[in-house]
Structure formats: structure tokens, C-alpha cells
Amino acid sequence: MAEDLPARFSQEQGRLPLGVAEGLRRALRDGRRVKDEAETLLVFDRSAEPGLWWKLYRVPPRRRVFAWLGRSRALREWRALRCIQAAGLPVVPALACAEDRRGGLLRSSLLVTGDLPGARDLRRLWLDPAIGRDRRLELAAAAGGAAARLHGAGFGHFRMQLRNLLLLPDGDIAWLDAPYACRWPGPSPRRIRSLDLVDLSGADSLLSVEETERCLLAYAAEAGWAPPLSTVRGRGRLPQKLRRIASYLMAVNLGRRIPPVP
After folding, report:
1. Is 212 within 8 Å of 141 (Cβ atoms)?
2. DSSP state of 260
3. Integer Cα distance of 89 and 146 in angstroms
4. Angle separating helix axes 190-201 and 237-253, nearest 10 degrees
5. Residue 197's CB: how many other CB atoms inside 10 A?
6. Which among 35, 39, 79, 41 is positioned nearest to 58, based on CA atoms?
7. Helix, strand or coil, per DSSP, at residue 102
8. 21-75 confidence digits (pLDDT tens)
């Protein structure tokens, strides 16, 4: 795609040696484009150890008149990742965030995160034909335990899919890409937990029934409760989507957005 990069960013948070605008250009020159689509540019630059991920979220012209009303995706992710980290949970390190606004209209936003060497996203692992049944069950249990700890810290993810979980070399699970995350003052409500677990291990996920059961058993071992297998596997794609949207809007309107982290 033709380059359409901001000459400068506003509302920068975090700190990078070259600043975000110049850093993004260097990453494009020296790094690898992992994704380049109309609304998303993802670049991995290994020139800085252990590596940096640059995510530029473009706002199409037809949506810019509405985009100024809400927080940018990069800002939401920035706050969520920092808040999850502050809660003591494994997460990709959020290093910088910035927005490109002109005349008050949001044109793009940028998030820079650090790399976690050796980490693999769970979706790729599930699609690997070399991964056998026993290993899948182990991973399902690891995902269930990680979900329980996230919920126990008061978070609702609202996009708890395998591609947003990273398996670390030590077997722990780290969180990635959480722009819709919200937080409650205590453990998240059971309806939110069920919503996330349907996304993670329901019939529309990559998990088999056996893997879902192992995921829920591990979740219950950590949380002391888990929704029934029939609930998690029985909800269809459309009902789940409608429930997710309604639950997220309710959480936002009740003041559960992730606040800024010092």
C-alpha cells in the first residue's frame, strides 16, 4: 500500500529514543511488515533488542467524523496493557502510544510494544499439525488458568481469543491485544467471565469439547467456579456477538473503562 504516515504525532505517552514518528519510519526501513492493510499496519523491528512491534491503526475518512468522540484503539490498548501489568499479570510490555489528530479528527493512532522472545500465540499452536492431543490439553489448561487469574484481578477481556494469548517459554501465558478490556474493583462478574470463556473455548473457537472441558476444569481450580460446559459450548456465534456488544456497552456506561496508569 502507498505510505500515508503522520509527519508527527500528538499526545505521546511513554518514551522512545527517536520519538514515535521517526521511530516508525526507521522500523519500516529496517524491520519486517507483518501486516499492511487499509486500517492496520504492523511492523516488527529487531534492530532494537529484544525487538519492537509497531502497530499503526488508521481511521478511514468515512469514520473520522465519529472517531473524535471516543478514545483511539492505541490509547485503549496502552492503558489496558499497563493496567494488566500493574496487576502483576504477564503481558507484552507497552512502551509508547501516540495519536495523529488534525482539526480535532483522529486520523491514526500508534502503539509500540516490546517483544517477548520465544513467545508463541496459542492460535498458531492450535493450527500446528505437529501438536498432539496431550499437548493441546496442557495448553487448554494453561489458558483456563490464565483466564481465571485475569478475571480474579477484576478484568473482563471482551476479545478472549487464542490469538490474543501468548505461550511463554516457561509455560506461562501472557496477554496481548486488549483494546476492549474493562475492569471491576473486585473479581469480574460471572456473566463477564462466561462471556470471555465462550470466546476462548466455545463452539466457535478452535478447541474441541474435550479441550474446552480441560480449560474449564483448570479455570475452576483457580477461580473456584466455572460456567457449565453446556453453556460455553451451546452459545452460537450471533448470540455471543450480541451479548458481547451489549455487555461491553453496559460496562463502559457503568464506568468500567481502564483508567490511566501512572
Report:
1. no
2. P
3. 9
4. 140
5. 25
6. 39
7. strand
8. 888 888 888 899 998 888 899 999 988 778 999 999 988 766 655 555 567 899 9
Tell me the three cell numbers of residue 253. Answer: 456506561
> Cβ(147)–Cβ(160) under 8 Å?
yes
Q: How far apart are CA 216 and CA 6, in angstroms?
A: 45
Name the H helices within the chain: 20-30, 61-67, 73-86, 122-126, 133-152, 190-201, 209-223, 229-234, 237-253
C-alpha cell at 156: 473482563
Name the strands in the sheet holding 52-58, side by side, starting at the edge strand that comes first in the sequence: 10-14, 94-102, 105-114, 52-58, 40-45, 32-36
pTM comes to 0.91
User: Distance of CA 176 to CAs 63, 80, 128, 131, 162, Å?
Assistant: 26, 10, 20, 22, 10
d(CA 33, CA 24): 12
